[in-house]
Fold these 2 entries.
Entry 1:
Amino acid sequence: MDRVEQINGVDALVLADEGPAYGAELSAGDLVGAALSHGVDLVVIPAHRLTDDFYVLRTGVAGDILQKLVNYHLRLAVIGDISAHVAASTALRDLIRESNRGRNAWFLPDRESLAARLP
């Protein structure tokens, strides 16, 4: 079940490990709506809850989700192993490197890495 948690003092909507995939059954708007309805500014999503199309940048799914979140001043943390996707795409590797340097979207291996990034 999705739940709101405090991670280092930041209220975050932590999406359940099981559930529909964003990019297929659920849209960027659904993700924004869930965050806003819970009053958080950070969404934590397991990497496997994003469709494969999210990781293929030419589909536009990642761009749609990331842009929608930025428009609503929401941050995103994708948690989990995405090494197979990264190995298959230089563009994705570049996006992840740049995102991880910023403050809006992070691609991290685990919750401990997320906690280390938050104040």
Entry 2:
Amino acid sequence: MKYLQFRWKQRLLIVLLVSITMSILMMGLELTDWAVNINQTGYSHGDNDTKPNIPPILMYVLPFIKEIILIGVPLFLTLIWIKIVNIIKRMSSHNKTKHG
């Protein structure tokens, strides 16, 4: 519990910034020709009498891929950002002690 309260404002700000950035990028993706083409043609899982035209394994795998993308990508970007910030802090503190 102590770790959750440690610098929570900074960590929350980082997560919010990454989430907002990803949302803006997703909104921009919606305006591309590729997305417009998908929206116009649509996607059919099959008629009432026919089976879906995708392999059955994909029906189970695709939801996990969606979760990985929507949760994993912002998480990965946040972890990279935190690592970069920590490296920069270490370099600056190392330079201060070396020159000071």
